[in-house]
Amino acid sequence: MIVVDQVTKQFKDKKQVVKAIDYLSLTVKKGHVVGLIGENGAGKTTLLRMLCTLIEPDEGNITLDGENIFENKEKVRSRLGVLFGSETGLYNRLTARENLEYFGTLYGMSSHDIKNQIEMLAKRFGMRKYLDRKVEGFSKGMRQKVAIARTLIHNPDIVLFDEPTTGLDITSSNIFREFIYQYKSEGKTIVFSTHIMDEIAQLCEDVIMMHKGQIVYEGSLEDLYAQENNRDLNYLFTSKVVRGDLYV
Fold first, then answer.
1. Would you state the pLDDT for residue 86?
2. What is the β-pairing status of strands 80-84 and 67-68?
3. Which of 8, 15, 50, 172 has its CA 20 to 30 A from that of 23?
4. What is the CATH number of the domain that holds 16?
5. CA 99 to CA 149: how far, in whole Å?
6. What's this model's pTM, rounded to 2 decimal places?
7. Which pLDDT does position 88 carry in this prediction?
8. Do residues 166 and 245 share a domain?
9. Listed residue (31, 24, 19) closest to 187, CA to CA
10. Distances from the Cα of 196 to the Cαs of 200, 203, 217, in angstroms?
11. Domain final position from 117, 137, 156
12. 24 with 105, same domain?
């Protein structure tokens, strides 16, 4: 379980100080798929970067199974799979297979396990035809699929995605969604941000709605629908922002 307790994060923008996260608290339950919703600048990416230990909060604590995630970053990172938007983290001069082999090695995987994982991911994401081609000539969608495979190469317990279906066609997006269902059935914990409300509705048990670094709703989708007597996520999010709801 991930617990975020009264976390704040500020950044300096020229002469201004921008508060990206404003005393935010939330809980991500083990084995749940959680959708993260908010406008651009709401603090979603900053939150995800803190969860994966890339940046530390100015105040507050973040724990994973009761342990502060910043006290043993390497241990935490070995359990995480992370993909941030268009930051694929791939090496253009290497083939897709070589990229996946390289990242598998970084995670301390054996050659046997790397080979098996690559075959499984290549089959699942339809990458076999270009697995041994250099990444530099890939389309955006092809690169995104390899990047998702790179994120999952070490079979992590927890996966953090920022706009994971960006650049994917309908077929590839559906494959990704099927993979989420499989990971959920295996008890994996998944947190992903998206502007596509249908993805939240189809894939998630829980949702976190953010606005200006704060939470306007955290909890199950079904509870939200029941509270508002409405199942239209676009309307529900807009309504909470306009009303200025803060989740406590």
1. 61
2. unpaired
3. 15
4. 3.40.50.300
5. 10
6. 0.89
7. 72
8. yes
9. 31
10. 7, 11, 17
11. 156
12. no
Say if residue 134 is in the same domain as residue 248.
Answer: no
Helices (H), strands (E): how many in the chain?
Answer: 9, 10
Give the model confidence (pLDDT) of 73-88 as tens digits. Answer: 999 999 999 988 766 7
| Cβ proximity of 62 and 68 under 8 Å | yes
Q: Is the pLDDT of residue 171 over 70?
A: yes
Three-state secondary structure call for residue 155: coil
Last residue of a domain, one of 115, 140, 156: 156
Range of the domain at 98: 82-156
- SS3 at position 130: helix
Structure tokens at 151: 């994120």
Number of domains in the chain: 2
Please spell the DSSP secondary structure of 13-55, one letter per residue: ETTEEEEEEEEEEEEE-TT-EEEEE--TTSSHHHHHHHHTTSS
| Predicted confidence (pLDDT) at residue 201 exceeds the cutoff of 60 | yes
How are beta strands 206-211 and 33-37 bridged, if at all?
parallel
Q: Is 123 exposed, middle or buried (0-12, 13-18, 19+ CB in 10 A)?
A: exposed
**Is pLDDT above 80 for 8?**
yes
Report the distance separating Cα 126 and Cα 206, nearest Å: 29
Could you tell me which residues come within 8 angstroms of residue 178 by beta carbon, excluding any fewer than 6 positions away? none
List the structure tokens of 60. Answer: 């507050």
Contacts for 37 with CB less than 8 Å, ≥ 6 apart:
44, 193, 194, 195, 197, 200, 207, 208, 209, 210, 233, 237
Residue matched to tokens 């306009």: 242
87-91 average pLDDT score: 81
